[in-house]
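tool_call: predict_structure(chain=1)
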Amino acid sequence: MTPLDLLVPAICSGCGRSGTECCARCLDAFGPPTRLQVPGVGPPVWTLAAYHGAARELVLGFKERGARALAAWFGALVAATLVTVGPPPWTLVPAPSRRSAARDRGGDHMLRIAWEADIATVAPVLGLAPGVADSVGLGPGARRRNLEGRVLVRGPSPPGTTVLLDDVVTTGATASACVRALRQAGVRTNAVLVLTSARPHRPGQ
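tool_result:
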């Protein structure tokens, strides 16, 4: 414990309990990976939690409220899950953020998580072209149009089980656009792994 910890004790981003960035009760919101039905994506989509309650608060705490220490927690969850989505070696491809959003967050939040899952190779090859809007509040069609032709592949991806990594799946527009861009660049995406899902939790076929 550092002097700063004594002055500003850690607070759980899920419930506000003091003592740790993520308490055991809130961490329990993330369970074994569940396969989802997400039309139009292609590869299997897996999630670790529904996007509500403590799981939602933890994602928002990390993504929007500066709780960067949660990267290690999320990275550990991702690492423990990779054996479910495919055989090693694994390559994690973080879903891209808009430049302005990444700047506001002090960096690309999904890249930070991917680096913490240290059993996988990280390939930050995806980017977004200028003009992509914030997807919050957009419907399914608008989300698709927002990303159409605007996901860029910047460089090669290493071989292995390629896993697209994102924080939330809602309509599947981001995952679909990323998978399509990778495919056009000659990269096969074997699975999509998201921390949380705003979709109904029905096992995929």
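agent: The chain has one domain: 29-197. Proceeding to next step.
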